[in-house]
Amino acid sequence: MKSPLSSMHEWINRRNRSSLTPQSGVKLFFLELVKVGIFTIVTIFVVRTFLFKPFYVRGASMETNFFDHEYLIIDEVSYRLNEPKRGDVIVFRYPNDPSQYFLKRVIGLPGETIMVRNGRVIVINKDFQNGIVLNEGYLRPSLRTPGDISATMKTGQYFVMGDNRPASWDSRGFGPISGSAIVGRVWVRGWPFDRAQAFSTPQYQLTK
Fold first, then answer.
1. Can you give the pLDDT at residue 45?
2. 107, HSE (Cβ side, Cα atoms, 13 Å)
3. Per DSSP, what are the bridge partners of residue 198?
């Protein structure tokens, strides 16, 4: 003969085993689906707002390294921890119209003087006070840099130029940009697939 306590345990167990009906199972499934959807949306929002941004290339100023309509991912985190480096390809807000975004390469750093003479880019800084020619291996071999200018960067300023020098509107025209205008560094080219790659800062061989 079962005790009243044993009978009570069996009754509780039966109720627990039968408490999940097909209808409640469907409700739980859709509830979890909604949770996953909300989490995904929030994650994408955070990533795109604070970490990485997609960017479409427009124009020919960075050819032959970046072409019109290519899809790039911009790293917005690196420059919160480190300063931009010479050779980094960056996205920044155009100084004369901050609603526009430009894609260029960092050439001159804060405190340096950049000179363009006879088709060459010359860097003057504390290490090379008499000036040194910037050897840019990422440019077309026959390409020369038009212009005859000299610009000295203040604290927090950068001199930027496009890789397609004859077809680029850059610091030779609108002057150095402020570090606060920089959105981020080009990290990955995602489209087209046959040109997909990650980018790193180039190494320079400076020649007198």
1. 43
2. 34
3. 188
Q: How far apart are CA 154 and CA 146, in angstroms?
A: 23
Name which of 75, 19, 63 is nearest 200 in CA terms: 75
- Core vs surface per residue 123-161: b (16+ CB within 10 A) or e: bbbeeeeeebbbebeebeeeeebebeeebebeeebbbbb
The answer, yes or no, to whether residue 147 has pLDDT greater than 80, is yes
* Secondary-structure breakdown of the chain: helix, strand, coil percentages, each rounded to the nearest 5: 30, 30, 40
pLDDT digits 0-9 by tens, 6-43: 554 554 455 444 455 666 666 665 566 555 555 444 33
Whole-angstrom Cα distance, residue 135 to residue 126? Answer: 18
- Residue 138 tokens read as 């990422």
CB neighbour list of residue 144: distance below 8 Å, 6 or more residues apart:
119, 120, 165
- Which residues belong to the active site? 61, 104
**Residue 56 CB coordination number (10 Å):** 12
What pLDDT, on a 0 to 100 scale, did the predictor assign at position 204?
84
